[in-house]
């Protein structure tokens, strides 16, 4: 797994995601989840490509069960994009890189514009 | 980029590691998995699931690693996956440039006359979009990699074509085309996305059954006619005949269904085996590519 992907927990969620000023994409996953594993190469690639513009974080839902209810995650893999501490977009299920990029890019462009 | 960094000792080291894992039954028919000393072929070679690590250590493009893992994951079992992975590594020549393999594979998945996605694509906008993506891959396979703007434009056109599709089947075919609309040298995920979509579209390639045979069809028709006539005679509505009723009255239907299921299973195995064979063939062919795309994706 890319060293640009951060592993987080419910204890570090506030510091790593909510209090982070820039965009953070959180991948809710589990060890037993095949589609979550299938998403890994895509996340590795995206983490490299968007390095410096986006933080990618993974949270294991089996080890951090309270997070599911808090963010109303009902199926995995679920990707929630946070900006300024709030959820701004969500993608659920296995998806192609094409649709993943289409999901991410509009939010990142706005973030870059806002930072100027 | 040269396979095994042009070092014969590195190839032997990687092959030996792979064989050790194979003998221990630790190679799984799973892609991108490395767990407790077991995993897919790529992970067993470099002890990591990160394709960037594989590329750096083996001198083989990330996209080819992704294709290798995916092709192995669709084989019947771990033994087949291990055998295929070993055969593939043995087939790679030390110092070989494998950058054309992934685009050639994607061109094949999209546009092969018999097995490609394009054959089943409609409407015309989807056909055009998939054809355009396949052309970019053919060019890339021949060493003429299009600029990023061309990939982006092809991707946008493919997404628009998908969004305009009216039926779920049209949409899933179009989505396979849009998934492939990346330069595999920079986006290896395009390979896994497209292979996955191609495998999932097996229903399009499944052999067509033309019927149960004239005799059995006639027999069933006559039987249904008799049931209807009996019901009419008794002043009852036409009977609702279930599949179960049909099978009980005509055991030949059960035999037919069994044969059909077996045939589909065999076809699916062949289909998945084909993916592994194509990857091997493209790897062999890539040693001789000069300025043209490999014949397999022409």
Query: Quick one: which chains have the greatest interface?
Result: A-B, 16 and 27 residues
Write down the overall geometry of chain B: globular
Shape of chain A: globular
- How many distinct domains of chain A? 1
Number-wise, the strands of chain B total: 2
Task: Please tell me the total number of domains of chain B.
Answer: 3
CATH superfamily of chain A: Glutaredoxin
- The CATH top-level class label of chain A: Alpha Beta
Low-confidence stretches of chain B: none
Structural class of chain B: mainly alpha
Q: Which band does the percent of strand residues of chain A land in?
A: 25-35%
The major beta sheet of chain A can be summarized as: 5 strands, mixed
Uncertain segments of chain A: none
Spatial extent as radius of gyration of chain A: 13 Å
Report on the architecture of this protein.
- Chain A has 116 residues and is of the alpha/beta class.
- Chain A has a single domain (5-115), classed as Glutaredoxin (3-Layer(aba) Sandwich).
- In chain A, 40% of the residues lie in helices and 25% in strands.
- Chain A is built from 4 helices and 5 strands, in the order E-H-E-H-E-H-E-E-H.
- Chain A has a 5-stranded mixed sheet with strand order 1-3-2-4-5.
- The longest helix of chain A has 19 residues, at 97-115.
- With 298 residues, chain B is mostly helical.
- Chain B has 3 domains: 3-91, no CATH class; 101-206 and 265-297, no CATH class; 214-255.
- In chain B, strands 1-2 form a two-stranded antiparallel sheet.
- In chain B, strand 1 and strand 2 (38-39) form a beta hairpin.
- At the A-B interface, helix 2 and helix 4 of A face helix 8, helix 9 and helix 10 of B.
């Amino acid at each position: 797994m890319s060293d640009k992907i951060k592993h987080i927990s419910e204890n570090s969620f506030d510091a790593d995601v909510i209090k982070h000023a820039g965009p953070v994409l959180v991948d809710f996953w589990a060890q037993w989840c095949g589609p979550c594993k299938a998403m890994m190469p895509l996340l590795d690639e995206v983490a490299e490509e968007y390095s410096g513009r986006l933080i990618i974080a993974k949270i294991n839902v089996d080890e951090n069960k309270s997070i599911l209810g808090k963010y109303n995650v009902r199926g995995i893999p679920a990707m929630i994009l946070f900006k300024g501490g709030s959820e701004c977009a969500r993608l659920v299920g296995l998806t192609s890189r094409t649709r993943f990029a289409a999901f991410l890019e509009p939010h990142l462009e706005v973030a870059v514009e806002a930072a100027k | 980029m040269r396979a095994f960094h042009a070092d014969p000792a590195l190839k032997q080291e990687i092959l030996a590691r792979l064989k050790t894992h194979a003998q221990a039954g630790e190679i799984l028919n799973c892609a991108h998995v490395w767990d407790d000393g077991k995993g897919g072929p790529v992970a067993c070679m470099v002890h990591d699931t990160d394709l960037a690590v594989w590329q750096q250590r083996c001198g083989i493009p990330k996209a080819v690693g992704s294709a290798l893992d995916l092709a192995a994951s669709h084989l019947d079992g771990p033994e087949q996956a291990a055998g295929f992975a070993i055969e593939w590594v043995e087939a790679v020549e030390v110092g070989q440039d494998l950058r054309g393999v992934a685009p050639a594979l994607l061109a094949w998945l999209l546009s092969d006359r018999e097995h490609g996605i394009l054959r089943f694509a409609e409407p015309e906008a989807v056909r055009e979009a998939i054809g355009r993506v396949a052309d970019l891959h053919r060019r890339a396979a021949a060493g003429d990699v299009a600029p990023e703007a061309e990939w982006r434009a092809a991707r946008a056109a493919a997404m628009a074509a998908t969004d305009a599709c009216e039926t779920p089947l049209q949409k899933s075919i179009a989505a396979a085309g849009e998934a492939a609309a990346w330069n595999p040298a920079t986006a290896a995920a395009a390979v896994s996305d497209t292979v996955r979509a191609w495998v999932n579209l097996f229903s399009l390639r499944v052999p067509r059954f033309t019927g149960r045979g004239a005799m059995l069809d006639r027999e069933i028709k006559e039987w249904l006619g008799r049931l209807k006539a009996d019901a009419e005679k008794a002043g009852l509505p036409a009977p609702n005949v279930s599949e179960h009723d049909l099978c009980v009255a005509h055991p030949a239907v059960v035999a037919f269904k069994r044969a059909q299921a077996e045939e589909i299973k065999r076809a699916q195995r062949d289909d998945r085996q084909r993916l592994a064979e194509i990857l091997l063939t493209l790897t062999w062919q890539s040693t001789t590519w000069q300025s043209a795309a490999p014949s397999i994706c022409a």
